[in-house]
Specification:
This protein is an alpha/beta fold and about 350 residues long. The chain has a single domain, classed as TIM Barrel (Alpha-Beta Barrel), CATH 3.20.20.70. The protein is built from 14 helices and nine strands. The strands form two sheets. A six-stranded parallel beta sheet has the order 2-3-4-5-6-7. The longest helix has 19 residues. The protein is globular and about 60 Å long. It binds S-adenosyl-L-homocysteine. The site of S-adenosyl-L-homocysteine has 19 residues, from loops.
Length: about 350
């Protein structure tokens, strides 16, 4: 424990560890080291954000995807996926409903679907911003060209989420078909940041072939890239993918890493993800207690919710639905935090 204690103290003051030190902190973790990390992560989060938790209304605009990521339930080769796409009008209706519920950030996420041209997306983004100038728009639509990202930014999009998935290029190649490239993904992230988006990266915990050394690389990448947001959640297998029989990631390690990331970047916007809530009934709460300060309830039309199935049993109703915000608020209050009606930008 002494060794771990000194690593945790070093992380708290220097916001950085070497790759070997990250490996040591992860491999030798104990309930005590997790507790200490949680306490320190919570302290720094409270210094910056108090006990507030930001909410985002997640609108899953399309499950058509040209990619074939081996882990993902909406991959192109999944013939059992019942495909849908939302129209501009449907997306705007989701925002109308979300605004009434107190959401001030709308996240549009989807597969890489060429149907959504720059023109169509820019029209949707600018209409949302025109109707709701006090709201932020986040996009999570995968890899696009620099020109496309620029147009979307100019149309008013504030933030972009693009998980790097893994910072190890060899590992990236095992999770993705040959056509997809690690370099392209990393370049997209750099471009997004350069353009001026509040940018989010992130990775899955416990994805197939992932080693502790690879997680250490993810943490190093997060240190260096300095994302505004960072989405991490456990890998959960999907029955119609090549990884159907692989083991899923754990809530315990996910929470441990949430605390570490909070200490690396005290102000980072860190969601307690749906995947974490899916594998553990109290996952959302555990994530917040570990240092997360964002939750993203589902605001998609109920008719399509089940169809955006990235992994088995993905939650989309109950506490995951935007409509249950009051209930979610209660659960969050019961652990000492509170949901706020706020754009929830990063505090710099
Ligand atoms: N097309 C967009 C959105 C992808 S879905 C993009 O490329 O960014 C959003 C995230 O869900 C992915 O980045 C991935 O990290 C996560 N995800 C996909 N399949 C998953 C699975 N089986 N288990 C856990 N997370 C998964």
């Amino acid at each position: 424990m002494n060794k771990l204690l000194s690593l945790i103290e070093k992380l708290e003051t220097e916001h950085s560890l070497s790759l070997d030190e990250y490996v040591c902190l992860i491999e030798n973790r104990t309930e005590e080291s997790a507790q200490l990390l949680r306490e320190k992560a919570d302290k720094v989060r409270r210094e910056i954000y108090g006990n507030t938790v930001f909410i985002r209304g997640l609108i899953e605009i399309s499950n058509f995807c040209k990619n074939d990521c081996l882990y993902c339930g909406i991959r192109r080769s999944n013939k059992n996926c019942d495909r849908y796409r939302l129209t501009k009008e449907e997306i705007l209706e989701c925002c109308d409903e979300g605004y009434g519920l107190g959401f001030r950030t709308f996240v549009m996420q989807g597969g890489e679907d060429a149907f959504y041209s720059d023109e169509l997306l820019c029209g949707i983004v600018s209409r949302i911003k025109e109707k709701y100038p006090d709201c932020a728009v986040t996009l999570s639509l995968g890899e696009r060209s620099e020109e496309s990202y620029r147009k979307l930014y100019e149309a008013g999009a504030d933030r972009y989420l693009l998980r790097h998935e893994t910072a190890d290029s060899g590992h990236y190649a095992k999770l993705h078909p040959e056509k997809m490239s690690f370099e392209t993904r990393m370049n997209c992230l750099k471009t997004l940041k350069k353009i001026g988006f509040q940018t989010g990266c992130g990775f899955m915990v416990g994805s197939p072939y992932q080693t502790t050394e690879m997680i250490a690389k993810d943490l190093k990448f997060i240190e260096e890239f300095k994302p505004d947001m960072c989405g991490i959640g456990p890998f959960v297998p999907h029955k119609d993918t090549p990884f159907a029989n692989e083991k899923g990631g754990s809530a315990e390690l996910t929470c441990y890493l949430l605390s570490i990331i909070r200490l690396i970047h005290p102000a980072v916007l860190l969601p307690s993800t749906t995947a974490l809530g899916t594998i553990d009934g109290n996952g959302r709460e555990k994530g917040i207690l570990a240092g997360a300060n964002v939750v993203m309830p589902n605001l998609s039309p109920t008719s399509v919710r089940k169809k955006y199935e990235l992994y088995n049993n993905k939650l989309s109703d109950g506490n995951e639905s935007a409509q249950s915000k009051a209930n979610l608020a209660k659960r969050i209050e019961s652990i000492g935090y509170r949901i706020v009606t706020d754009r929830g930008d990063i505090k710099k």
